[in-house]
Amino acid sequence: MNQSNLNQNEPRPETQNVTPQTTNEIELPKFASEEKSIGTLKKDTQKSPVAMLILFGILIAVIYFIPIVTPYFSDILDKLGISNNSEIYDGIPDTDTTKDNTDTKDNTQKEPLEKKTYTLAATETATLDKIEYTAFQKEQAGAYYYINYTITNKSTSTYSFTTHKIFLEFYDSAKTYLGSALVNTPNLSVNNSVSIKSLVNQSIYTSATTFQIVEKQADEYPDANLINNTLTCTLNNRVLTYTFYNNKLTKIVDTDTYSDTSTNYTNTYIDSQTKVNTLNRVTGVNAIFVPETNKFTTNITIDYNIVNSNLTTNDTLYYVKDTSANTIKYELDALGYTCN
Fold first, then answer.
1. Handedness of CA 279, 285, 290, 295 (dihedral sign)
2. How much is the pTM?
3. Which of 12, 57, 145, 295 is the most exposed place for a label (fewest CB within 10 A)?
4. Can you tell me the distance from the alpha carbon of 102 to that of 251, in angstroms, rounded to the nearest whole number?
5. Backbone angles phi, psi at 111, to 5 degrees
6. CA distances from 1 to 10, 11, 12, 56, 308 (A)
7. What DSSP letter does each residue of 255-321 carry, written as one string?
8. Which of 101, 92, 44, 42 shows the shortest CA–CA distance to 69?
9. Is the dihedral of CA 91, 54, 69, 82 positive or negative?
10. What digits encode the pLDDT tens for the residues 28-86?
11. Nearest to residue 198, comparing CAs of 190, 189, 208?
């Protein structure tokens, strides 16, 4: 029998269907000359980037909405023993108006410092801003009354009485206010002293027993009534006329006459000549010195449409440009002038 026929008649082994197993490995391709693969690769088990973004968005939304919805479930949270801490989140105001805020707010209003009262006596020493006021004496000269005293600068810098408006306010034994006097002097250097002679009314001279030192601001002064936008202030033989526009100083005319019967006439004569000569160097100032028999007159005009200088160092009554009428009237009244 033909061998080839025998081989053909032999039963052939059945072909089995093998289902490939699912694994986490991927078989690498086989080479043509080999029956086995050269190895396997593991599958990427990481999640999709889109899924990660979705999860991150959900997390952000939860964090954002927790403080918003928490107050609406406060009763439930209280029963569960969970505190409502929504107010700790920035941007979410705590609208609970029933809270007692007395522990966090100090509604106590501080009272102003009480003014110190001093005895009007030669042995008294009064102090304000490290400036000492001593040696108080009452004086009468003819029909005029004065309070004399000495000021000493005990501070560490020059003190300006044109910047600081200091008043002495006088009271009688019943604490009744009698009037005030403006401390009228320019700058006072450190450790220097100056003697002041303040003109006062007769009531202060006869009845004042105590006083207070007070610094005042211009907005504390009462309103001044002007006539044709001018304010004329007179004391003895001196007449000061202030002109204003919209209540602001624009011009000063100062006329003063001294006779040889005046105290310290010779010194006053020399000082007045020096003052006139100094002011004539200022553009916008016209100063005249007129000597006469047994007297002399000065006439000084300051036009603030031209003058830009501060002339208070020449005379404390030469107020700077745009000073209010209220300031000038109140302060000259406190110097004993009659202003209208």
1. negative
2. 0.65
3. 12
4. 56
5. -80, 145
6. 14, 17, 19, 80, 146
7. EEEEETTSTTHHHHHHHHHHHHHHHTTSTTEEEEEEEETTEEEEEEEEETTT--S--TTT-TTSPPT
8. 92
9. negative
10. 555 555 555 555 555 555 556 777 778 878 888 777 767 666 666 655 656 555 555 54
11. 208
Q: Which two tokens stand for residue 96?
A: 């609970």
CA distance 249 to 333: 17
Residue type, 179: G
Report d(CA 37, CA 27) in Å as an integer: 7
Q: d(Cα 19, Cα 24) in Å, to the nearest integer?
A: 16
The pair of three-digit structure tokens given for residue 28, joined into one six-digit string? 């690498």
Task: Say if residues 235 and 317 touch (Cβ distance below 8 Å).
Answer: no
Q: Identify the residue whose tokens are 């610094």.
A: 215
pLDDT confidence bin for 9, thresholds 50/70/90: very low
Helices (H) and strands (E) in the chain, counts: 6, 18
- List of domains in the chain: 56-88 (no CATH), 118-216 (2.60.40.1240), 221-339 (3.30.1830.10)
Question: What number of other Cβ atoms are within 10 A of residue 182's Cβ?
Answer: 21
| Size of the chain in residues | 340
d(CA 162, CA 184): 8
